[in-house]
Structures are given as C-alpha cells and as structure tokens.
C-alpha cells in the first residue's frame, strides 16, 4: 500500500495538469476567434448601409417604427471599432444641400446659396459663428421659396462660419435637421463706389475762386469725394481735397484769367476710388465725367 500511494497521487497530479493545459488552450483559441469575429464584424458593418443597420435593430425590437438612426463609427485602441446608434425623429427633414458662401467683394457682405432637399422642408435656418465648429447664433429663417440669403453689416477680413439646417413644421411642432457641413466666407471690398454725377464748375463773382458742385452716389460705404486740380487739360493733377462729405467746394486764391481743370472722384471706407476721368475747365464746357 505504501509503495502504490505515491504513484496514485502522481497520476492524479498529471491528470490535473493535463486538464488545465486543455482548458488554457481552449480559452486562448476562443479569445483569438472572438478578436477575429469583432474585426470581421466591424468591417462588415462598415460595408452595409445605414438603413440595413436600422432594419437589423428594428428586427431585434431595439427601434420602434417612429424612429430612425444615425450610425456612427468610433475607433477603439486602434484594433477594432465600436458603433453607436443615435435615435432620431422620423419626421426630421434632410439638411440643405450644395451650400455655398460667396464674397461679392462689395464690402461687409456675403451671399449664401443652397439647394433645398427633397422632400421640401418648411424653412431653412441660417446660423453664423466666428469660431470654426461652433453653431453660433441664428441670423435668419428663410422660407423654402428662396434659396439665397444676403448677410450684411459684416466686418471686412473676418472669417465667418455658416451652418444651415432645414425645418419641418407640422401643427405646433417644428423639427430641425442635422447640420450640413459648415461653410466659411470672408467679406472683402475691392469694388470702387459709383462716381459723382452732375458735376458743375462755375466762376465765383470775385474772379479768384471757383465753385465746384456735384451729386454724391448712394453707396453705403461712401467715405466722401476727392477733388484734383490741374493746369493742363487731360491731366488729373494734384489732389486738393480728400474724402469731402459736402456736395460743393470753393477753390480759392486762384489767379485771375488762368484756366484750371478739375476731376472729382468718389472714395469708399476701404480706400477704393472711382475712375479719374479728367474734367474740362470753367470756360463753360460740360464735364465729360461719366457717372
């Protein structure tokens, strides 16, 4: 008996060791299979459409018929991917399409264009921000009969970011769409203002001064008019007045009997100036300046 007992214990220990080895191999095999399955499932889910994913969730009673979902992918440690499903209202309209922001180069103004999605929503809301990725403030709600909006009174050189959302109103309930991709624009001013019109030159009664009168253009960013004087026909000459806001000017202390030539231009707050078409003298000829 005493000689057989160690052998039996030894056999039991060997058997236990074999069992643990088999269990360990099985666990490792299952872990590798699960990792492969997770990776395969992630790539398979990426290849199917959102509607298919929604159908799968509806089959499992996760989604109700009054909802639909927005599928998102999230990287996890660089090995596999997780998916999240955001439940959304089935009445939610699609966002506006083909959004563009155009700088008209007239200063302080950007024009926004878009295409309405189908089915057509009730209106389009326009949000503006000076920080990228931020929704900002709602500046307009435009009926879908229009697909353009003029944003005015902006700061030249500042970057503005626009987000457009569709809305659908049913009774007293309004549902807003998800965001379309944010679009940016920078207002600039490279266009000259309109030229002064109805320019007249007249000798004053003292024979040493000339009265220049004009009608100012209606540009919103008009800073005033510049007046140039020359002793030679066809030359612009020297600027004698800058950004004058009145509609007439007395040029004094001139030489009696000498002929003077004047050019009157408009200038805006960005420094853009209308063309310098030279004027005739005060001898009675009309000014050829084209307004």
UniProtKB/TrEMBL annotation:
The chain crosses the membrane at residues 12-32. Keywords: Membrane, Transmembrane, Transmembrane helix. It comes from the Bacteria. PROSITE patterns: FN3. Residues 95-193, 195-289 form the Fibronectin type-III domain. Residues 272-291 are annotated as: Disordered. Residues 280-291 have a biased composition (Polar residues). Pfam families: fn3. This is Fibronectin type-III domain-containing protein.
């Amino acid at each position: 008996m005493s000689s057989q007992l160690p052998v039996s214990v030894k056999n039991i220990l060997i058997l236990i060791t074999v069992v643990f080895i088999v269990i360990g191999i099985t666990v490792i095999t299952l872990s590798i299979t699960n990792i492969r399955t997770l990776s395969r499932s992630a790539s398979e889910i990426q290849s199917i459409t959102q509607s298919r994913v929604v159908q799968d969730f509806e089959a499992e009673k996760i989604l109700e018929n009054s909802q639909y979902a927005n599928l998102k992918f999230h990287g996890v440690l660089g090995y596999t991917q997780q998916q999240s499903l955001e439940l959304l209202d089935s009445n939610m309209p699609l966002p506006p399409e083909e959004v563009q922001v155009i700088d008209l180069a007239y200063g302080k103004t950007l024009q926004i264009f878009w295409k309405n999605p189908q089915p057509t929503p009730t209106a389009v809301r326009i949000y503006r921000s000076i920080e990228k990725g931020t929704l900002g403030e709602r500046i307009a709600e435009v009926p879908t009969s229009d697909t353009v909006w003029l944003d005015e009174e902006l700061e030249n050189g500042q970057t503005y970011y626009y987000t457009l959302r569709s809305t659908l109103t049913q009774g007293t309930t309004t549902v807003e769409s998800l965001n379309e991709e944010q679009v940016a624009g920078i207002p600039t001013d490279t266009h000259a203002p309109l030229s002064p019109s109805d320019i007249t030159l007249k000798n004053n009664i003292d024979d040493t001064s000339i009265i220049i009168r004009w009608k100012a253009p209606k540009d919103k960013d008009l800073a005033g008019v510049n007046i140039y004087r020359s002793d030679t026909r066809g030359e612009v000459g020297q600027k004698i007045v800058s950004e004058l806001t009145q509609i007439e000017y007395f040029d004094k202390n001139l030489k009696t009997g000498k002929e003077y030539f004047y050019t009157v231009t408009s200038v805006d707050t960005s420094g853009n100036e209308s063309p310098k078409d030279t004027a005739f003298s005060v001898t009675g000829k009309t000014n050829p300046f084209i307004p």
